Amino acid sequence: MDSKWTAPGSALIVIDVQNDFCPGGALAVPQGDTIISAVNRLIAMADLVVLTQDWHPRGHGSFASSHAGHQPFETIDVAYGPQTLWPDHCVQGTSGAAFHASLNAIPAALVVRKGMRSAVDSYSAFFENDRRTSTGLDGWLRSRGVERVLLCGLAYDFCVAYSALDAARLGFATAVVEDACAAIDLDGSRVAQQKAMRAAGVSLLSA
After folding, report:
1. pTM
2. Of 90, 159, 166, 181, which one is the catalytic site residue?
3. Which of 82, 94, 97, 168 could cross-link 174 (Cys pair, CB 3.0–4.6 Å)?
4. 3-205: in CATH 3.40.50.850
């Protein structure tokens, strides 16, 4: 991996390495915990580290349990478009929402909590799923002179990919470290998002 991705002017964005996305969690990504050593190596090399954290209120609109007659992993239409329904996960203040104990969170300069509005889901580190509401991360990075972002974490085909596509659209040079990610792979979503990222100019790297 080119050292420019860890040099000043770059930021590492670690996406949602939380208990509920790891084996035994409410929305476990297969082998999600096996990436943590690679993620920690990237953290140790990074000039600037940002963590994101899914942080849903109880009864969030993305939970299948909030929609009578629907099951997890179904898709429904909501005000801002299609929404995949999920098992209840990363509920504010629960152990499932906490960062995995093996993640080295100490160097993080910022934690971006997302999915906090009950009616709107939020995959991207930069925008909620209405595609209008900003998390403020764009401005925070620019105020620190960041021009390049490197991403890793969970899940590759949802929150990592959405974040990478938004970063590229916002004008950051963007890369994803694929072997520091794990995917849900819902109906071929892993390959579809990999193609979308390549088409958007996102570099796909190995640690």
Report:
1. 0.96
2. 159
3. 168
4. yes
